[in-house]
Amino acid sequence: MKHLAVFISGTGSNLQAVIDAIESGRLRDTGISVVVSNRKGAPGLERAQRHGIPTIYHPHLPYRQRGLAREDYDRDLVALLEPFAIDLVVLAGWMRIFSLEFLHHYPRVLNIHPALPGTFPGMHAIEEAYAAYRRGEIPETGVMVHWAPDEAVDSGPVVMSQAVPILAEDTLEALESRVHSVEHEIYVRAIAQVLGVTLEDASSSERERPG
Ligand code: GRF
After folding, report:
1. What are the tens digits of pLDDT across the range 129-187?
2. 10 ligand 1 Cβ < 6 A
3. Does 142 sit in the ligand 1 pocket, CB within 6 Å?
4. I need a surface site. Which of 38, 183, 190, 203 has the fewest CB within 10 A?
């Protein structure tokens, strides 16, 4: 059994996709041991609790108020994760950059970003791609899953990427929703691949479900 720690700061729809893949039996030999959030109100925390997954809320503000460094925050995070014997850290909308303090302890950190490799890093990737398409600069956008081995943002060795078409009639909301659907599938596939566990195809796990 492989043990994941999923890190979130917000909605947690990618977390939900991983939970669903595990609970449906699609993603084999894998469990989410803990969900970590740096934001108290992150809806993803509720999703975890609904599925009986332990959660850790680890806010940064107290560290900033005491004038402590990112490394201090990360060192305590490492200590909080220690009991869970984590095989893979999965970032799913986690809005902080790890210091090397954390990455030395957890060299296997996977991130998902809603853009093709080398394009639109940062928080507004889909909006920026949409605007670039409207200006005629790009024909499509995409999604990538990559290793996060250092402090760089939304870059690192690419595990998987997939193009997502942009249609002339797309609203930003329509594009966002298409990008997120692709994310939800590609992240589960990438996690299975890096863990070396079986991922059933969606139709066969449907068939296996009782009732
Ligand atoms: C996703 O678009 C992901 O690619 C990016 O942050 C967003 C998180 O969405 N890193 P959610 O919280 O999983 O719904």
Report:
1. 999 999 999 999 999 999 999 999 999 999 999 999 999 999 999 999 999 999 999 99
2. yes
3. no
4. 203
pLDDT classification of 4: cutoffs 50, 70, 90 = very high
Q: How far is the CA of 68 from the centre of ligand 1 (A)?
A: 28
9 Cβ closer than 6 Å to some ligand 1 atom: no
Q: Could you say which of 3.40.50.10780, 3.40.50.170, 1.10.3720.10, 3.30.420.10 is the CATH number of the domain covering 2-123+144-163+179-210?
A: 3.40.50.170
113 is catalytic: yes
Distances (CA, A) of 46 to 37, 54, 80: 11, 11, 19
Separation of CA 118 and ligand 1 centre (Å)? 17
pLDDT of 211: 40
Residue 206, SS3 per DSSP: helix
Three-class DSSP category at 56: strand
Q: Could you tell which of 38, 183, 187 is best to mutate to test the pocket of ligand 1, judged by most ligand atoms within 8 Å of the CB? A: 183
**Residue 11 Cβ contacting ligand 1 at under 6 Å:** yes
Pair 2, 192: CB distance under 8 Å: no
**Which residues, including other chains, have CB under 8 Å from residue 51's CB and lie 6 or more apart?**
19, 23
User: What are residue 91's phi and psi, to 5 degrees?
Assistant: -90, 125
Active-site choice (51, 60, 105, 113): 113
